[in-house]
Amino acid sequence: MTPATHALLRWSLVFVWLATAIVSVVELNGQSHALLVSLPPTWSTPGLSQFLILAGAAADALVGLWLAWRPGRTAYLAALVLMGTMTLLATFIDPSWWLHPLGPLTKNLPIAAILLVLLQDTPTPPHKP
């Protein structure tokens, strides 16, 4: 892969993670909260749901910034783990999101593929004895 292609893929992921963080906060009491309403009442109370949304947004922002400023195998693996965890949580909360026409969960499959390609394209640092 060319360095330009690698950079294009990486910066597209930076955009996705940072945009997701921003939208989650902007929609704190809207769509973000609506995702959690199918949870038991204890989990979907306003205070706890806001905390969960803000924690997810913070994780998204951290990964986005990590991919922007310190890209590498560890950052790509962290992004893959976060994306997988969020996908599993969203599937547990409301599996119908897999059938949404705009693909809020199905988009994670090509994101995972991009992360795997970036991982494969990034050299492993030499082992220190």
From TrEMBL:
<keyword id="KW-1133">Transmembrane helix</keyword>
<protein>
    <submittedName>
        <fullName>DoxX-like family protein</fullName>
    </submittedName>
</protein>
<keyword id="KW-0812">Transmembrane</keyword>
<dbReference type="Pfam" id="PF13781">
    <property type="entry name" value="DoxX_3"/>
</dbReference>
<feature type="transmembrane region" description="Helical">
    <location>
        <begin position="99"/>
        <end position="119"/>
    </location>
</feature>
<feature type="transmembrane region" description="Helical">
    <location>
        <begin position="7"/>
        <end position="28"/>
    </location>
</feature>
<keyword id="KW-0472">Membrane</keyword>
<feature type="transmembrane region" description="Helical">
    <location>
        <begin position="75"/>
        <end position="93"/>
    </location>
</feature>
<dbReference type="InterPro" id="IPR025695">
    <property type="entry name" value="DoxX-like"/>
</dbReference>
<feature type="transmembrane region" description="Helical">
    <location>
        <begin position="48"/>
        <end position="68"/>
    </location>
</feature>
